[in-house]
Specification:
The complex is a heterodimer of chains A (583) and B (171). Chain A contains 20 helices and two strands. Chain A is mainly alpha-helical. Chain A has one domain: Up-down Bundle (Cytochrome C Oxidase, Chain A), CATH 1.20.210.10. In chain A, 59% of the residues are buried. In chain A, strands 1-2 form a two-stranded antiparallel ribbon. Chain B has one helix and eleven strands, in the order αβββββββββββ. Chain B folds into two domains: 46 residues; 118 residues, Sandwich (Immunoglobulin-like). Chain B is α+β, with helices and mostly antiparallel strands. Chain B is 26% helix and 38% strand. The chains are: A mainly alpha (583), B alpha+beta (171). At the A-B interface, helix 7, helix 10, helix 11, helix 14 and helix 17 of A face helix 1, strand 1, strand 8, strand 9 and strand 10 of B. Chain B: GO terms for molecular function: copper ion binding; cytochrome-c oxidase activity. Chain B: This is Cytochrome c oxidase subunit 2.
Chain lengths: 583, 171
């Protein structure tokens, strides 16, 4: 399968010949830089939206670059939620497993993944910056953007699925050499994430290929809005796990090593990922609790399933929390809270990730509210919702990726990080800014302030009459946005600056963690003789969870079972809606 | 005793405690989620009116049945009103109803997606082109309620506001 000139088993230590691993590092760096460049543009626009809620309308001064709030919001959402996350994830989830297993990934496929998504990004940028497609990141028809938008989106989604065959190939090659052993943890988690995403991506791909592309290109006149919306949320809910699971990969698979400890439970990490695969898929329509057209019985089932998806995250909270405690106690932390303060807070990568976890405690709790059917009525499409996802994907994931970048940039380039202090400052500013912003957004949402609304355009009297109750909350939103501006500037000074610093004597290694009862790391014995290596304690649970094919098949069936009854009435009662370009 | 032996002893003890606590935690987590589910379902049954039901489909979103925006009295203090969302207004608005009235809102859109939310209540319905959704709500408090569009619908989305005036006895 692999037609590469490189040997398939590579010594993975830092002293390996540079030429052998250099292509992997270069490709990973390309994914990282492209992804973070998208976030840079998106994050610079973000505070404008926060100021909007505070009643400050900055857009008139920005024409012709940005014509409207809605154009800025579309760019912000698409670049941050899709381009940033997809690039970082599709890089990390190939690079880390390949290095963990000591095998060369299929470079042609991996570069193809980059090329498809990069081309898609350029098409999206054209469609968004010319204001032809200010349809926001959810692009609900019958709002009709330009064909460049939908075709670009199609390429990005299709490209993001390409790591799956790379991972399946890596795992198969490794298994063939080590029969009877279970998949190493980081590879297991990465593969589970990609299997989940492969099932999830189907919804958006069908929506784009069957409905939106032909419609935007003029082959069809009308579109069925509710079918498109339901297909979108088939992908749109599991996508939150596609954002989150790579952060979990870092928390489970790397962070324990970075803080000088061990992962307290390898089987629980696997169980969390298997449960995330199963439960994240069938629940997408809980984003449609307020939509007419399908039976209340299914809303009840969706509620139960949605609460179930909280379980793997609660397990994660325990396992990661305990791993932090173990490391903290090893470092001399005593008492009820001493282990937490004893963590290596001066390491910006650690600080960023632990702060990301803290935020996620609140993000997860808010998510349970959103999933609780009727509580959702109070918060649905209010500022509560973006408040929620800015402390989940916007912090739990994004700040973790920033933390990963702090060790990974020196690892990939062999150059030092520009400034440890500035990196630390950016993490704390991001954490503080997001906390203030999200507090304001959640609070304003409870006063019925709608999300995605250019409220600063309203006459002052109307703004005060309708949203006056939320005044203090909306000021917090604006203040949080300004702090995030500082965080963004600090982070990108470090990120871009680190691409042009002096060389290190020694390339830092990937911090693969060791689990209790597990071996040091598979990555360290790349190139060693292949054979069954007695594993000290392989739990029954871990062995049962090796059957990823079965778990995926079961999930596919459950997803079909959940969606047939939802789609049925929509397909029986089709709507033919014409497109609207109204921005 | 060497340092590594001490560290290994600590690790073993920590590991044993971890496994015990892990089982307790999983049990507590499942219990908590079960209780939350029970609470959620109770709330749904208690206030079933605001659960969105389906009141009809039509092929052409613009083909709204006349008379549009009418208010029909269906009981002593019960009304049914068809709310039509259009770029960028609600009809009928303002809507005047007496205090204590139970109003069934039949909500639909004639063009793109809109969101029908009544500020300060639990009424929140997506106005979908081609589908009519239905909820009921009893207004026990007099005053003016804002209808806010909460689904992005284009350039004037923020200005798509309506009003419900609940006229009550001052007593």
């Amino acid at each position: 399968m692999s037609a590469t000139a490189f040997p398939t088993v590579l010594p993975a230590s830092i002293d390996a010949p540079a030429d052998a691993l250099a292509p992997q590092r270069r490709t990973m760096l390309a994914f990282l830089v492209w992804g973070f460049s998208a976030l840079m543009i998106g994050a610079m626009i973000g505070p404008l939206q926060a100021l909007n809620y505070g009643g400050v309308n900055a857009y008139p001064s920005l024409t012709p670059l940005l014509k409207t709030y809605y154009q800025g919001l579309t760019i912000h959402g698409v670049l941050n939620a899709y381009i940033f996350t997809f690039f970082v994830t599709c890089g990390l989830l190939v690079y880390l497993p390949a290095r963990e297993l000591g095998l060369m990934p299929n470079m042609a496929l991996w570069r193809g993944c980059f090329a498809a998504m990069a081309l898609g990004t350029l098409m999206l940028l054209v469609a968004m910056f010319d204001n032809s497609s200010s349809v926001l990141w959810t692009f609900y028809p019958p709002l009709k953007g330009s064909a460049w938008f939908y075709l670009g989106m199609t390429l990005v989604v299709a490209g993001s699925l390409m790591p799956l065959p790379i991972l399946l190939d890596l795992r198969a090659r490794w298994k063939a050499r080590r029969p009877g052993e279970i998949t190493p943890l980081v590879t297991y988690m990465s593969l589970t994430t990609m299997l989940m995403w492969a099932l999830a991506g189907g919804g958006a791909l069908i929506e784009l290929v069957v409905q939106l592309n032909p419609w935007a290109l003029g082959f069809t006149d009308t579109v069925d809005p509710i079918v498109a919306r339901t297909l979108f949320w088939w992908t749109g809910h599991p996508i939150v796990y596609f954002w989150l699971m790579p952060a979990y990969v870092s928390w489970y698979g790397l962070l324990s090593k970075q803080i000088g400890g061990k992962l307290v439970s390898d089987p629980m990490a696997r169980l969390s990922f298997a449960l995330l695969l199963i439960f994240s898929l069938p629940v997408g329509s809980h984003h449609q609790f307020t939509d007419p057209g399908f039976s209340p019985i299914w809303r009840g089932i969706l509620t139960a399933l949605t609460l179930s998806v909280a379980l793997p995250s609660l397990i994660t909270a325990f396992t990661i929390g305990l791993s932090l405690e173990y490391a903290g106690r090893l470092r001399g932390g005593r008492g009820f809270i001493g282990w937490f303060t004893a963590l290596p807070w001066r390491d910006p990568s650690v600080a960023a990730q632990v702060l990301a976890m803290l935020t996620f405690i609140f993000g997860g709790a808010g998510g349970i509210v959103n999933g609780s059917w009727e509580l959702n009525n109070i918060v649905h499409n209010t500022t509560w919702v973006p408040g929620h996802f800015h402390i989940t994907v916007g912090t739990a994931s994004a700040l973790t990726f920033m933390g990963v970048a702090f060790w990974m940039l020196p690892h990939l380039t062999g150059q030092r990080l520009l400034s440890r202090r500035l990196a630390l400052a950016s993490a704390w500013l991001w954490f503080t800014g997001m906390s203030v912003f999200a507090l304001g957004m959640h609070w304003a949402g409870l006063h019925g302030v709608p999300r995605r609304a250019w409220v600063s355009m309203l006459p002052r009297s109307v703004y005060d009459r309708v949203y006056g109750d939320a005044h203090l909350a909306l000021i917090l939103v604006a203040v949080g946005g300004c702090i995030l501006w500082l965080a963004t500037i600090a982070f990108y000074t470090v990120f871009l600056g680190s691409l042009a610093t002096r060389r290190l004597d020694r390339r830092p290694a990937i911090p693969f963690a060791q689990a209790f009862g597990g071996r040091e790391s598979y990555a360290l014995d790349g190139g060693a003789p292949v054979g069954v290596v007695a594993h000290p304690s392989v739990s029954k649970l871990a062995r049962a969870l090796e059957h990823l094919g079965l778990i995926t098949a079961f999930t596919a069936l459950a997803t079909a079972a959940a969606y047939v009854p939802i789609f049925w009435p929509f397909l029986q009662n089709a709507t033919a809606a014409h497109g609207w370009k109204v921005w | 005793m060497s340092e590594s032996a001490a560290s290994s002893e600590f690790e073993d003890a920590f590991h044993k405690a971890a496994e015990r606590h892990e089982r307790v935690w999983v049990f507590v987590a499942v219990l908590m989620l079960t209780l939350l589910l029970a609470g959620t379902m109770f709330l749904v049954v208690y206030a079933y009116g605001v659960v969105v039901r389906t009141a009809g489909f039509r092929r052409d979103p613009a083909a709204i049945e006349a008379p549009e925006g009418s208010i029909a009295k269906t009981g002593p203090n019960a009304y049914t009103v068809t709310i039509v969302a259009r770029l960028w207004r609600w009809s009928p608005s303002p809507l005047r109803i007496p205090k204590g009235a139970t109003v069934t809102f039949r909500v639909t859109s004639a063009d793109v997606l809109h969101g029908f939310a009544i500020q300060g209540t639990t009424v929140n319905v997506t106005a979908v082109p081609g589908i009519t959704g239905s909820v009921s709500y009893t207004f026990n408090r007099s005053g003016t309620f804002n209808i806010v569009c909460n689904e992005y619908c284009g350039l004037e989305h923020q200005g798509m506001l309506g009003r419900i005036v609940v006229e009550g006895d001052p007593a």
